[in-house]
Input
Amino acid sequence: MDTIKTYDLHTQLREARQEIGDIEIAETDTDFVKSYWYYILFGNYEGYIIDDRPGNNGYKMYVIYLNGLVSGFSIFHETDLKKTIDLVIVDIKYRGHGLGTTLLRKCIKESVAQCQKVLLEVHADNTGAIRLYRKLGFKFTDCHGDYIKMVRR
Output
């Protein structure tokens, strides 16, 4: 049975980091994950943490557990009109078990209840993620560089 715990990254960043510290990230995700979020989440970005950024009170993280073990997480932020999914990571040992779908559905369910649209970006080469997003009702809206913007209303 999978369960999901929510963290407010403005006030609970340290606890969130401790929870996800052992997640094994797929090699195909390392370029993206080594970016901004990797440094914030794993504490390797000198002198910069999410708590210090103005307006970041809206950043939250869902951590999903399978059989009591941390197996993935998603990060998102929201305003009154939209929710932006910034990152979805599932431990490579647990891919294919529907955990990414569960994390996304939780974001979508809350957004629909609050009449928000849901936005995300995905690398054009990430065909598995694009297939999942389309299955969950996301539509293409724009392209910039190697990334595709998608929305679900």
